[in-house]
Amino acid sequence: MDLQHKITIVTGAASGIGRACAGALAAAGAQVIVADIDAANGTAVAEAIREQGGLAEFMPVDMTDTAAIEAFAAEVQTKHGPVDVLVNAAGWGRTAPFVEGSAEFWNKLVALNLVGPMALAKALLPAMMQRGGGKIVNIASDAGRVGSLGETVYSAAKGGLIAFTKSLARETARYGINVNCVCPGPTDTPLMAAVPDKVKDALIKAIPFRRLGKPEEVADTVAFFAGDRSSYITGQVLSVSGGLTMAG
């Protein structure tokens, strides 16, 4: 897979799935913008990619702040020109009963998991449309396809991201832009490390492959959607869940 010098933004790239995506895309030749609110880890990820011979730089962005997102997009495009690939990997959730949630908590979940990706796509799309091409890969979750106990609002936000993917794909196909969505199942990330062992054990027993996913396995799917081999694929949602969710 060749993404030689393609200008690529990966949000949430300081850790977990975003970090794996940044590494995989850089290994394929992309010039990666490591975007995250975590400056220390984001800088370290970019440095690690460069040490391995890849092209990467860290640029900070708060994906819950629309003004910050717009300023970030403007800075990237001023410095590098139109973006070739956007990977919306930033996301966050916390397991808790729905009735115990607050409006502030809900707003944070929706802002980070849905509104932020929409705002960044909107800021980058005009240049993609003018050029006549581009790739957008949204990372949602199987929680958005089938629901998840204790993650009701997170599931709603990710379900919204899935619907956004499909609708945006219809709107932008005439400009040669591909928009697809990857839905990880339970994956061995720092967020998963905070889940109680009893819950993780139950998840693993329910997964046909009997293990958690690896961030790199999700990144491989993202790299496919970012590359030329998916040129005739748009509006699709692909689960990477070890068979846990076989959604139609």
Enumerate the spans where pLDDT stays under 50 for 5 or more consecutive residues: none
Strand composition percent: 15-25%
CATH domain topology:
Rossmann fold
Shape: globular
* CATH level 1 name: Alpha Beta
**Structural class, please?**
alpha/beta
Number of strands: 7
Give the CATH superfamily.
NAD(P)-binding Rossmann-like Domain
Strand order of the largest sheet: 3-2-1-4-5-6-7
Pattern of helices and strands: EHEHEHEHEHHEHHHE
Please summarize the sheet with the most strands. 7 strands, parallel
Helix content: 40-55%
Structurally, how many domains make up the residues? Answer: 1
* CATH structural architecture: 3-Layer(aba) Sandwich
Structural features:
alpha/beta, 248 residues, globular, Rossmann fold, seven-stranded parallel sheet
Structural write-up:
By secondary structure, the protein is α/β, with parallel strands linked by helices. The chain has a single domain (7-239), classed as NAD(P)-binding Rossmann-like Domain (Rossmann fold, 3-Layer(aba) Sandwich), CATH 3.40.50. It is built from 9 helices and 7 strands; from the N terminus they run βαβαβαβαβααβαααβ. 45% of the residues are buried. The mean pLDDT is 92.
In short:
The protein has 248 residues and is of the alpha/beta class.
Secondary-structure map with pairings?
Blueprint: E1 7-11, H1 16-27, E2 31-36, H2 39-51, E3 55-60, H3 66-80, E4 85-88, H4 103-131, E5 134-139, H5 143-146, H6 152-172, E6 177-184, H7 190-193, H8 197-206, H9 215-226, E7 237-240
